[in-house]
Amino acid sequence: MLAGPLSRRIGDHKVIDDRDLLEGLAGDESHCEPRMPDLAVRADCTDDVRALLELADKFDVPVTPRGGGTGKSGGAIPVLGGVVLDMTGLKKIVEIDRQNLLAVVEPGIVTGVFQEAVEDEGLFYPPDPNSLETCTMGGNAAHNAGGPRAFKYGVTREYILGTRTVLMGGKILKTGRRTVKGVAGYDVTALLVGSEGTMGVFTELTVKLMRKPPSLATLLVRLPDEIAGGRAVARIVEAGLVPRVLEFMDGIMVDVLRHTGAGGIEEGTGALLLAEFDGADDERVEADAVRLAELCENEGAVEVLMARHGGEREKLWAARRILSDSIKERSAFKVSEDIVVPRSEAPRLLEGLRTIAKKYGVMVPSYGHAGDGNYHTNILWDDPDFDPVPAVCDLFDLTLALGGTITGEHGIGMAKREWLSKEIDGDTLALMRDLKKVFDPRGLMNPGKIFV
Ligand SMILES: Cc1cc2nc3c(=O)[nH]c(=O)nc-3n(C[C@H](O)[C@H](O)[C@H](O)COP(=O)(O)OP(=O)(O)OC[C@H]3O[C@@H](n4cnc5c(N)ncnc54)[C@H](O)[C@@H]3O)c2cc1C
Questions:
Q1: Which atom of ligand 1 lies closest to the CA of 134?
Q2: Residue 256 is assigned to a structural domain of this protein
Q3: Which atom of ligand 1 is nearest to the CA of 75?
Q4: From CA 45, how far away is CA 390, in angstroms rounded?
Q5: How many CB atoms lie within 10 A of CB 364?
Q6: Do 187 and 118 have their domain in common?
Q7: In ligand 1, which atom is closest to the CA atom of 111?
């Protein structure tokens, strides 16, 4: 019903019904079951998006926006069928304003491509999800993405000044501002950021930039065990050091890396820390790096490697970059969660993970953004009959008991809907549902996500 009028409005070539092409838009990087959409739209301007959302509302068809498809919670999966709205055709950098340190971009631009473009101008866009070579700015805004640099610079929400957002039915909102400050009315931009495509579709984002820090130092610290690693992280934070990156890989993760032969992990390594400082002043950056090395040595570090420039720094990043793939090779099955605990609770979390591993006879390696208390915790198993759900339940119970949250970056999507009510009380959850209805009264905008 929808395909004909849509083709007439936006052009045949943007409306996809070829099964092979639709199959490529059915899943994402989560463990959620893919679902074929009935149709896809390859939008390349706001008017295309508006036309689709007008007609979808009229014909009662659900629409699921999609960026790079790298999401880890099933957010871009069209769980009720309908139309997948592929946003990767809206990929222009509309403006880079050097004087006011901001940029206006279309949401389909790949994050790493945007970062390179601003860095070529001596500017800097800090949010850096590890998927930055394939994820999009729109997906980052929808999931309020974090990344290794969040310890110093914060997450995506802190950089989104404004949006152009199309609502189901075709209404276009212009939210936010271009100024550093601004408190006029409710902060609708902040509400839309992190709404996982369930309230509207971004077709433009205004983002804050910084001057590119010219000086960098990267450190890779080999520690004898994860207890020493946990203590080292605590000392670094207590000392008031603010590396832009502070990443941790636990003992089992180190074993996983060693097992795959990747990353050049030497014997005697029981945990790894990767840290990176940046700043305007070489001497200051070097002094902070040396101080971090001393603190780690006091906690028993076996070796601290430091690099200041391109290729050498990249070598230190090698182990971190291959973690995700190494885990995939280690076992037949895995689920991967991104829990966060208050930093001070990290030792109790690690201890609890060992208990869960023992109870269920599985491996539970974790790694991630230790500076933020954000751990990518994986449950690995080989037995096809093993049901991971009770182990995941224990993991979330442990996280919440420690005062944490069940997702720091990846969002609720389809994957964690059943668990949201464990974390959010009934009244707040009801308010969230009401907010969704204000933007999307008929429930056609990315249905089946966040709420059960
Ligand atoms: C190897 C790997 C590493 C990762 N590392 C990180 C990390 O360090 N930090 C982190 O936060 N995440 C990380 N992720 C998860 C993922 O990359 C992020 O969630 C990312 O923000 C998703 O962007 P995307 O463009 O791929 O979005 P998609 O997966 O396509 O979609 C994600 C959500 O955004 C919505 N959406 C997409 N575009 C729009 C739009 N224009 N308007 C409204 N809604 C939209 C979709 O409906 C969906 O709900 C990683 C993933 C992988 C595979």
A1: 26
A2: yes
A3: 49
A4: 45
A5: 23
A6: yes
A7: 25
Q: Looking at the structure, do residues 222 and 301 belong to the same domain, yes or no?
A: yes
pLDDT above 90: residue 145: yes
309-328 pLDDT per residue, tens? 888 998 888 888 888 788 88
Do residues 273 and 231 lie in contact, with contact meaning Cβ atoms separated by under 8 Å? no
Query: Is 109 found in the same domain as 32?
Result: no
| pLDDT computed for residue 324 by the predictor | 78
Classify residue 326: in a domain, yes or no. no
> How far is the centre of ligand 1, averaged over its atoms, from the C-alpha of 194 (Å)?
10
Of the candidates 86, 113, 148, which is a domain's last residue? Answer: 86
- Residue in 287, 116, 293 with CA at minimum distance from that of residue 215: 287
Q: 281 pLDDT exceeds 80?
A: yes
Question: Which residues contact ligand 1 via a Cβ below 6 A?
Answer: 28-29, 64-72, 75-76, 87, 107, 129-131, 135-136, 138-140, 142-143, 145-147, 196-197, 201-202, 324, 409-410, 446
Distance 167 CA to ligand 1 centre (A): 20
> Which residue lies with its CA nearest to atom 53 of ligand 1?
70
- Residues 236 and 305: their CA atoms lie apart, in Å, by 16
Q: Which residues contact 329 (CB under 8 A, 6 or more apart)?
A: 260
Q: Which domain holds residue 364?
A: 331-423
Starting at the edge strand found earlier in the chain, the sheet holding 215-223 runs 303-307, 215-223, 271-279, 245-249, 366-369, 374-381, 333-340
From the alpha carbon of 411, which atom of ligand 1 is closest?
19
Residues 170 and 246 in one domain: no
- List pLDDT tens digits, range 36-50: 999 999 999 999 999
pLDDT digits (tens, 9 = 90+) for 423-449: 999 999 999 999 999 999 999 999 999
Task: Say what the pTM is.
Answer: 0.95
CA of 449 to the centre of ligand 1 (A): 14
